Every structure is written in structure tokens, then in C-alpha cells.
Protein 1
Amino acid sequence: MKKILFIILMTVSCGMHAQEYTLQQLQEMAMQNNKTLKNAQLGVEAAKEDKAKARTNYFPQVSGMAAGFRGFDDLLQGSMPAGEKVMPLSLVKKGFVGSVMAVQPLFQGGQIINGNKLADL
């Protein structure tokens, strides 16, 4: 009996605090909370980002690499027999390697232009 009375009291108290909405307010609330519309808006934003990404294909791509090394004396030294003599052998003690590469796409069978047209759509 207490549960039924509690449910009736809660229903009545919720009804007293009800707020009235206009049709315009209900339409705005429905559009703000519609998942399909939110997904569509996110899709439009993603397409704008894809368009900006497609524009970067016109610019050269640059990459570089550098490495330096120094060997320990005990690690890279040795000896090699040459007849009656023993010749000391030092393989690599220190060095430096580096490279830079720049690639500028000139024509990729229309892939860049068609990619940008598709991003515009």
C-alpha cells in the first residue's frame, strides 16, 4: 500500500512542476537532440577536414634522416694475419650519415585533381 501511495504522490508532484513549451521550442529541442542530424553535422565537418587534407597533396613532401656513431676502441679493433706479420685492423671508429629527400608530385594520373573534386563534393 505504501508503494502505491508513493507512486501516486510522485506522479502528482511531477505533474505540478510541468513546464509548458511552445511548438517552436519543441522543434528546436528535437533538432538539437536528434542523433541523425548530429551525425550529419559531424560528417560535414569531416568532409571539410578531408578537403583541407586533399589540398596538401600539391605541396612537396620533405623527409630527412641523420645518424652519427662513435665506436669504442675495444669493440671495433682487431688484427688480421698477413703472412708472417700481424696487421692491426680498425674497422669503423666514428662516422656520420645523413640524407634529405623532397618529393614534388607533378602528375599522378589525375589522382590529386580528382581527389580535390571529390573533397569539394
Note: Strands lie at 61-70, 77-82, 85-90, 94-103.
Protein 2
Amino acid sequence: MTQCVILATYLILFNAALVFPTPLNELLDSSAFNALMASEQETVTEVRFKTSTPALLPRHSYTRELVANALQDLDISFLVETLYIYHKPSGASFPTWTEAERSALFNQCLALSRLAGLEYYSESRKRMRTFYETSFVIDSPETKRPLPDPVYDSPPASVLLYARQKDLTFGDNIYCYEYHARSDALLFTQENLTTLSLVLIPAVGKNRLRSVVAVFDASADLLIYVLSAAKAASFPGLNERVGESFSNRADALLRWFVNQADQAFGR
């Protein structure tokens, strides 16, 4: 009898420890879910001005905490959000990602050097344009010595990186990236540590651009959520121009992530 009780207790604890993916319709509120399901590209993007209230934010407590921290004390000029469904390849683990898959995806997200050469659609030029001409991890914002992309056997709970990225629109800048690994999600934040300038005009002051990217395990799919918000300089038309630019840049970042995910899952 005692052995049966011990076995039953063990099974309860074991099952409680298992982490199962959250279905898409539970990760999202009904309006965001319906919009995503209705999209032929399985992508939904919202660009909003003068608001600090996200419209597409998933129902995930840790993500909501990161977003709240990112938007805190930010007098927002614009806010860009994107949702995207990434279908895992047929050979991926089901119903949840394995530790090997999670680790591979985490390392792909750390590969900031692979952002170099990424292109986005320029609204002003009406053509594709290089996003980052160069991108690499550095040891600190002061010395700026290049480092290789880090690689981990298993994702740590958090990782702090600094990166130097030359943007053909906003110049050569330093960013802080912070990565967070959870059993059901991988997340990272980005913040500019230098002023982003547009044709010699200071467009976004230092620490005034903040982004959050969250990747959720959703059984046969990944749900990707991207948020960027900034306080832009007060020049006529600048908010709209910068907001549209960051919307297209979010699309480019999403394409970059899809390529990284393909490599992580061996597609």
C-alpha cells in the first residue's frame, strides 16, 4: 500500500513537471487570434502612434513583464507589433520541442553576426535596402572589441550581450541585448545605447528604442511576437517616417528569424 502511494505521488509530481505547449487560441486573445487565422501570410502587424498599450501581446506572464519593463518611462511616439506563425518541419519533436531543439534555436538567436547584410523594404526609396551593413557582438560599450557569437550547450536563464551594428539608415550604433530562456519560450530584448540619427538629425535618443522578441512553443508551430517602441524626435512627419521604417524592419527581422529557425530545426 505504501509503495502504491509513493508510486502515485511520483507520477503526480512527474506529470506536473512536464511542460506542454500552450495552444495558439490560449496564447492570444480572440481578436488577435482571429486576425492571425484570417491572414493569408499568417502574419499580423499593428503600427500605432502615441500609445503604450500593445494590441497583440500574448497571454504569457513573463513576456508581459518584459514588455511592461520595456515600455516603462518611455514617452512613446510609435509602437510596432507583429505576430507570426512558424510551422515546424515534419521531423520536429511533437508535442513539445526537445532540449536539443530549444538549445539550437537559442544559439541561432544569439548569432547577431548573421544580421549583417539583411535587407528590408525602404518606404522612402521604394526598394529593398540593406538593414545592417555590419553586426557583431562586442565585449563592452566602452572598448567595443569584437567577439564571436556565443554558443551554449544548454540555454542559461539569461544572457546579456552588447553589439555594434552599422545601420545604413540610422548609422553606427551600440545596442544592449538581453536573452531569457524558459521551458516554453525564448525571449530577447534590445535597447539602443547610442543616439540613432537620420541624415545627421538625431531621430531616436539613446535608450529610447526598445524591442522585445518572444518565441513560444505551440505544439506543431512556433508563435513569434515582435514589439518595437520608441520616442522619436519632434520633427514634422518624423514619427510617421520612423514608425513605417521600423514596421518594415520588424518584417525583415522576422524573415531573419525564420531562416534561423529553419537552421535550428534542420529544414
Note: DSSP finds six helices and twelve strands in the chain.
